[in-house]
Structures are given as C-alpha cells and as structure tokens.
C-alpha cells in the first residue's frame, strides 16, 4: 500500500515537472516572438538610407510576374530610329523604322516624383510604343526640384526656354545622389522585363538608357539649358546612373547624354570622358540640322583621341535642303556616310515637328500629313540596308554593307565606281528609285548611288 502511494506521488510530481517545462518553453517562444516583432518595428522607425515607396509600389516590388523572354519588339540589330514616333505612327511604321526615342520623354525624375513614384505617364508611353512593336531608347532626366532645393536654393531658376515646365527649374547634379540612384534602379527594374516588379502588361524590356541629353548645351541667353555644371559634374551623374542601371539590369546598355553638334572636341566632354569613360556602353552624339557628312568622322576622331572604343549611335539627326530634291540627296548621302563610317544606329529628329521658317524644311512629313520626297528616300534605304550585319570601308566614299545573302555597295564619288561590279546590277538612287541596269550604264552623274549584283 505504501509502495502504491509512493508511485502515485512520483507520477504526480513527474506530470507537474512536465507541465512546468512546457510553460517555460512556451514563455521563451513568446519572448522570442515579441523580440522579433519589436525589433522590426524599431527598424521601420529608423530613417532608411533610401526613400520609401508608396504602398502600391511596395506591393509591386514583392510581386513576381511572368518572365519576358523576348527583350525587343523588333531585332535590336536594326539600324533606323526616330524621335517621337507618336506624332506619326502610321508613317514611321510604313517607312520601316523600328526604334523610338521620346524627347524629352516620360522617364523624368521631376515628373515621376522624388520618392513617391508615379509611373502613370511613363506606363502610358511604354504601352503605346509597344503596341506599335517599336523598340525604345529611354532618356533619363536626373533633375528633381525638391532634391535641387536641398543644396542649390540660391541658384537661378530656369522657368523659361525649350524645356520650361517639363524639366526641373534647376538642373545641376543631384544633391542626394543616393536618392537619385534609387529612382534610377526603380525605373529600370519596372521596365526591364525580368518578371520581377515589372510594369503590368509589359511586352518587351527596355534595354537602352540615355543619361540626360546634350548636357554640354548651356545657352543661358536662349534658355536652351540641358544641364548646369562642368564636365566633371556630369561625369558624377553618369557614373551614378551606370551603377544604378546595372544593379537593376546587368544586361542593359547605358548611353552618355549625347554630345551636341557643337560639343564635339569641347573641354566639357574631355572632362567627362577623362572621369567616366568606363561608365557608359555606347558613345552617343547628335547632329541636328546637320550637313551630309553627319559629322561622324569628326566625332569618331574625337572619342578615339580620348581613348574611347565603343559602339556609336547618332540619336538625333536632321538635315535641311534648299529644295525637296536637295533634302532627299542630303538624307541619302548622310545616312550612308554615318552608317558606312560606323554609326550603328541613326535616329531622325525632325520627323513631323511644328517648326517655323527654314527649320520646317528639315521635316520628313510636311504638316499636317504630306510625305516629302525624303520620306521615300529613307524608306528605300531602310528596305535595302536595315538588316546589314557589318560594313566595310572600301575607300573614303565607298562602303560595302554585308546584308544577308549579298553585298550592297554605296558609292558617294564617281571615282570609286568599281570594276568588280560588272554585268547586271540593281541600282537605287537618292530618290529611292530601284531599277535593274547594266554596270556599263552607270556614270559619274548617277552618284551617290547604291548598287548590288542582280
């Protein structure tokens, strides 16, 4: 009987011990849970080194979408682009152009917002362009008024000029470079097509980003001011942008904000290239209202002297002719020269602009909707050359384009007409007219001309 009482007492003690242990373990678990919870709350109350996004964007940041396997709407190797295709989608598509560069475009820190990002305008643009199956060269504008006010409060306000009301009223390098980099990374991530935090409905990734435009142009008198500062200041923006773009999308390509026509060889760009030559992938320049040389050789010589060996894009080109015939001839010659001497892409800048006086003669479309002869010249060139994979400089005025299955020769001087193109040939003149002919019928008066063996 005593033994039974002992066992009952021992069992009761054991149960009590187990209950005590369970309570202690439960208490420890609760302590850990509360510690983690309050640690997280404490962290969230500490200012982050990066600005926070609004709730809607936070949701997008954690939402994975389907990976986009096609990075481009049209082959990235196509060579012809236009500025502001939205002004004439029908004409752009008819000509065979496959690249668009919006100017100034929606990828603008001032319009998207300092840290509470509003993507509506940018999304609308991307949707419209991708509906037309065009590739996008996107221009990032690195200025935001709230940011600029932090360290440039006493600077002159730029409330006049070409981009008044579109860019920030002060245009110096960002005061808070980390905030700017965060904006760039968020921007690139939204449109990179990797299936993570992408724009809803994105069809193709944006893979080319230009950092501002013509930052060397600072004409106070006319208000044509795209940047305020020295070359070394812009170099800081370029380096920060490059880092942020590559962080978000390592496969993306960065272009320097284009060297202006009058900026070729300038101290500004010498300083940029000295300080940031490794912070862009494609060397970019402009030649608006240009001549038929497209100043391509001058630009290539300049960057070569600065130790730069990169692909070249001409992302704003236009040309004025005294007559429609002269404009067609200039367009024909300039495109063949630019592409022949190594510009991988050429974007026509004055397609259908509202321009007055002599500048209206640079338009490809005479407003409201008349196609000028240069339109048909450009259309014929695109049809003939857009798929070329390489080009060889046979002589200074003779270029051989390697188009799939054939060689296409461009002759810009009569002295370069070659004997090896004998017999039947297909010729294209600067009017865009294509005909079969005999080589012995081709004379100096026909130059400039494009020929291939029939």
Indicate the topology.
Blueprint: H1 2-45, H2 55-62, E1 80-83, H3 89-95, E2 99-101, H4 109-112, H5 120-131, E3 135-140, H6 145-148, H7 177-191, E4 208-211, E5 218-219, E6 224-225, H8 231-248, E7 253-256, H9 267-276, E8 283-290, H10 296-305, E9 312-319, H11 324-340, E10 343-348, E11 365-366, E12 370-371, H12 373-385, E13 390-395, E14 398-403, E15 406-411, E16 424-428, E17 434-438, E18 449-453
Parallel strand pairs: 1-2, 1-10, 2-3, 3-4, 4-7, 8-9, 9-10
Antiparallel strand pairs: 5-6, 11-12, 13-14, 14-15, 15-18, 16-17, 16-18
Helix pairs in contact: 7-8, 8-9, 11-12
What does this 3D model show about the protein?
- The chain has helices at 2-45, 55-62, 89-95, 109-112, 120-131, 145-148, 177-191, 231-248, 267-276, 296-305, 324-340, 373-385, and strands spanning 80-83, 99-101, 135-140, 208-211, 218-219, 224-225, 253-256, 283-290, 312-319, 343-348, 365-366, 370-371, 390-395, 398-403, 406-411, 424-428, 434-438, 449-453.
- It is α/β, with parallel strands linked by helices and 454 residues long.
- Helix 7 crosses helix 8 and helix 11 (324-340) runs parallel beside helix 12 (373-385).
- A hairpin with a 4-residue loop joins strand 5 (218-219) and strand 6.
- The protein is globular, with a radius of gyration of 30 Å.
- Mean pLDDT is 87; it is low at 1-16 and 32-63.
- It contains twelve helices and 18 strands.
- It has an eight-stranded parallel β-sheet with strand order 7-4-3-2-1-10-9-8, with helices on one face. It has a six-stranded antiparallel β-sheet with strand order 13-14-15-18-16-17, covered by helices on one side.
- The protein has two domains: 55-387, Glycosidases (TIM Barrel); 400-453, no CATH class.
């Amino acid at each position: 009987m005593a033994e039974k009482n002992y066992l009952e007492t021992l069992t009761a003690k054991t149960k009590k011990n187990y209950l005590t242990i369970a309570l202690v373990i439960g208490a420890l678990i609760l302590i850990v849970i509360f510690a983690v919870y309050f640690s997280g709350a404490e962290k969230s109350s500490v200012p982050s080194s990066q600005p926070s996004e609004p709730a809607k964007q936070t949701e997008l940041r954690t939402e994975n979408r389907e990976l986009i396997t096609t990075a481009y709407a049209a082959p990235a190797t196509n060579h012809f682009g236009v500025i502001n295709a939205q002004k004439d989608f029908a004409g752009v598509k008819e000509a065979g152009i496959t690249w668009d560069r919006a100017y100034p475009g929606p990828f603008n820190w001032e319009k998207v917002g300092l840290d509470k990002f509003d993507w509506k305008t940018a999304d609308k643009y991307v949707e419209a362009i991708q509906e037309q199956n065009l590739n996008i060269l996107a221009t990032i504008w690195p200025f935001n008024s709230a940011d600029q006010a932090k360290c440039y409060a006493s600077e002159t306000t730029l409330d006049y000029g070409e981009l008044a009301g579109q860019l920030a009223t002060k245009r110096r390098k960002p005061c808070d470079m980390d905030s700017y980099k965060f904006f760039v990374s968020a921007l690139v991530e939204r449109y990179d097509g990797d299936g993570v935090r992408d724009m809803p409905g994105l069809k193709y990734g944006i893979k080319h980003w230009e950092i501002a435009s013509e930052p060397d142009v600072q004409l106070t008198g006319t208000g044509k001011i795209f940047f305020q500062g020295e070359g070394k200041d812009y170099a800081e923006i370029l380096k920060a942008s490059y880092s942020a773009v590559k962080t978000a999308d390592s496969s993306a390509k960065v272009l320097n904000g284009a060297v202006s026509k009058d900026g070729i060889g300038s101290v500004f760009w010498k300083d940029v290239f000295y300080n940031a030559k490794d912070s862009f992938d494609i060397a970019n320049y402009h030649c608006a209202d240009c001549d038929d040389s497209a100043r391509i050789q001058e630009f290539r010589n300049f960057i070569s002297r600065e130790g730069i060996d990169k692909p070249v894009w001409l992302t704003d080109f236009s040309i004025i002719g005294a007559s429609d015939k002269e404009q067609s001839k200039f367009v024909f010659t300039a495109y063949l020269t630019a592409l022949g001497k190594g510009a991988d892409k050429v974007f026509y800048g004055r397609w259908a602009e509202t321009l007055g006086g002599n500048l209206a003669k640079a338009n490809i479309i005479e407003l409201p909707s008349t196609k000028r002869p240069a339109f048909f010249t450009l259309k014929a060139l695109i049809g003939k050359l857009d798929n070329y994979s390489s080009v060889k400089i046979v002589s200074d005025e003779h270029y051989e384009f390697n188009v799939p299955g054939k060689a296409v020769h461009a002759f810009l001087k009569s002295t370069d007409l070659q004997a090896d193109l004998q017999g039947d040939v297909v010729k294209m003149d600067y009017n865009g007219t294509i005909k079969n002919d005999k080589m012995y019928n081709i004379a100096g008066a026909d130059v400039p001309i494009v020929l291939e063996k029939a």
